[in-house]
Amino acid sequence: MATPAASSAPLIEKHTIGYVPPEDRHGKVRDLFTLWFGGNIAPLPIVTGALGVQLFHLNLVWGIVAILVGHLVGGVLMALHSAQGPQMGIPQMIQSRAQFGSLGALLVVLIAGVMYIGFFASNIVLAGKSLHGVVDSVPVPVGIVIGAFGSGIIGIIGYRFIHVLNRIGTWVLGIGIVVGFVYIFTHIQTDDFLTRGSFNLSGWLATVSLAALWQIAFAPYVSDYSRYLPADVKVSSTFWTTYLGSALGSSLAFIFGAVAVLATPVGMDTMDAVKLATGSIGPLMLVLFLLSVISHNALNLYGAVLSLITLVQTFAYRWIPTAKSRAVISIIVLLACCFAAVGASKDFIGHFVDMVLVLLVVLVPWTAINLIDFYAIHKGQYDIQSIFQVDGGIYGRYNPQALLAYAIGIAVQIPFMNTPLYVGPVSAHINGADLSWLVGLLVTSPLYFWLANRDTSYRRRMMGGKLASSL
Q1: DSSP three-state, residue 418
Q2: Which of 88-92, 156-160, 384-388 comes out lowest in average pLDDT?
Q3: Could you report the per-residue pLDDT of 64-78, keeping only the tens digit for each?
Q4: How far apart are CA 361 and CA 359, in angstroms?
Q5: Per residue in 155-185, is it b (16+ CB within 10 Å) or e — as a string?
Q6: Could you tell me which of 113, 116, 130 has the C-alpha nearest to residue 47?
Q7: How far apart are CA 366 and CA 106, in angstroms?
Q8: CA neighbor of 80 nearest in space, from 441, 465, 391
């Protein structure tokens, strides 16, 4: 369902972290499918999907099964966050104040911001290398700058333009990846395409975890792209369009990576394998993936800027910045990332991906708390005015129950972790499979529900939130 505002919505987004009033709501629920489908057909998920057969030595069938299971499970959490957007009308991270308090939410907002910047910086390096691969005369540093500024323009224009580009990208990239699959399957260059690798439980679990964590990584900003939809759209519609778009797009990209490396000799870099496996259409595929990186990376810049604004607004609570402020902060972040990426080592992407894996350990308990609070405790009813008050209004500066559940949710994951900084004993015992995210969810969810419901003062605040005006 669209509102009359849909046709009159400005191209350059005027809102930042503030509440989007009914008269400014626009868009259609189906836009969420195209956003998350088109945005997930890109080099980074292709490279990640290939790890199931490259690193964990699964064969094609078991690799595909693991990829599907991971995305179908992780996508549920991601889509549940998306369904919050139309009801709340505010970005995901600032909504966390309702669960953690105005100051208690700062750590999570900071972590999310750092993660977005890490993804943005990694992707501009990938864009630079892709552009150099397409046009040899363009040096990688120049490609990095071009990719960064392309994403920057999209991010500065904002919400509506991001959706428009991904509607186009869904058709172009969707057709492109289908053509790529057909070409690879008809030009397989290896004799062990179906027999390379085998089932092993640890590798299968590790691949499931990679796919699930890919989905969970979107959780801190997924509702940012549904918050302009009319408040009366059905929760189920928002959920399913997001879920199907993200799970299907991500699964296709992950499986494409696995197929490409199995169709080429052992030991090749994934994107080199894609180029070789797609033969005569390889250059065209690389161009499509380059455009996808630039378009999708705008989401990372957009999320980073909203997180930074949220951090500042916590202390300057009367400040709700305009489009101009958002543009200035975007340029600052963009220039800083370009400077870091151009001067970084060849392992830049690997280092940032490692960092993101560590950050996900502390974002998983946040996901559990946010979803339990929204769907089981408050049932979608919050006092928006309190969320923007410096003292947190009815939600306070800190919510001890949320912070306690959050800390325990991190602690219980430690034995099951497998990150570059630390490998837990349980993970080491099962050959490196990282099940920390699953343990974190299973422990944090019931723990927070119990803590929140046994605290009488919290229940009073909850009722206050239901009775208060939400603008």
Answers
A1: strand
A2: 156-160
A3: 999 999 999 999 999
A4: 5
A5: bbbbbbbbbbbbbebbeebbebbeebbebbe
A6: 130
A7: 12
A8: 441
